[in-house]
Amino acid sequence: MIDDLDLARLNARHPEEMQRLAHAVEEIGFLKLSNTALTGDRVRRVLAAYRDFFTLPEEDKRGVDMARTGSNRGWGAPQTEQVDPDANPDFKEVFDCGYELPDGNPYATRGLSVYAPNLWPGHPAGFRAEVQGYYTEACAVAMQVLRAIAAATGRDEHYFDTAFETPMALLRGNYYPARPDWAGDKDFGIAAHTDYGCLTLLATDGVGGLEAQMPDGTWVGVRADPGTFVINFGEMLEFWTDGQIKATPHRVRGGPEERISIPMFFNPGYDTNVAPPGSAQAISAGMHLTRRYSETYLHLNAAG
Ligand SMILES: O=C(O)CCC(=O)C(=O)O
Ligand SMILES: [Fe+2]
């Protein structure tokens, strides 16, 4: 039910592959993707860097704890994010980093938390370089996929390009310990949610656990080895395409094995209007993302 697509064939606009892409984005909202510039070895290197970080003693991770900041850069401890108000806070821990505004970028003077500076730990050695290198490469792959999607859904292939000149792109490492023995019905690695932005390019270490909700309401497992990616779509792309592209709910309950996943949330620039073209309303991408972060990260929660 979840299709496997080949990015080289999509980049060549191979008609059959493009048709399968249109089906995947419009009917399912999930697909798997291989043959990108990010090889299995490349992904295993960045997975190892995150693993080295997550296995540091807690006091080291506390040195880059996002809870002390007004943004989501650095380490997020277990149970500090609640993506589903009907579930308990997630038992995963995370490390988030975002887009670094170039000097002189007009957004720099606006004090927007979605462009907050990154927080980097002093060690493991090489962590920052590994993660920043992957960030840049993952953005390039995500842009190729978005161009193919624009073309497959009847738009000019560059339809989305300018919106991503200053992306609020967020790269996350998710660390899921084995499902704790205290975990009950309302406890998840990450509870059911839709992603907030446009496109998510997800790498995993190959351990299963991700489940996506199909149109008939059933949950299906989606597993991807390093070098193969899971792609899904967020709320902004659903608004922007007036529902043509689906933001599909997904979750990780967690199982007997620990697991690492690395989503690149490819979000457009703050001032992008993601309302459907021609609609009377305007939806600011930046305001939507800021609101969703404040609803889900407990340290940013206005009510909490
Ligand atoms: O770990 C996964 O497979 C999914 C993670 C996820 O959905 C997220 O971080 O938004
Ligand atoms: Fe997600």
UniProtKB/TrEMBL annotation:
Pfam families: 2OG-FeII_Oxy, DIOX_N
Catalytic activity: L-arginine + 2-oxoglutarate + O2 = guanidine + L-glutamate 5-semialdehyde + succinate + CO2; 2-oxoglutarate + O2 + 2 H(+) = ethene + 3 CO2 + H2O
GO MF terms held by the record: 2-oxoglutarate oxygenase/decarboxylase (ethylene-forming) activity; metal ion binding
UniProt protein name: 2-oxoglutarate-dependent ethylene/succinate-forming enzyme
Provenance organism: Cribrihabitans marinus
Keyword Zinc part of the UniProt annotation: no
Entry's EC annotation: 1.13.12.19, 1.14.20.7
GO biological process, one term: ethylene biosynthetic process
Reported cofactor(s): Fe(2+)
SUPFAM superfamilies the UniProt entry points to: Clavaminate synthase-like
Keywords from the UniProt entry: Ethylene biosynthesis, Iron, Metal-binding, Oxidoreductase
Domain Fe2OG dioxygenase: 166-268
Family: Belongs to the iron/ascorbate-dependent oxidoreductase family.
Keyword set includes Metal-binding: yes
Location of the region described as Disordered in the Swiss-Prot/TrEMBL record: 65-87
Pathway: Alkene biosynthesis; ethylene biosynthesis via 2-oxoglutarate
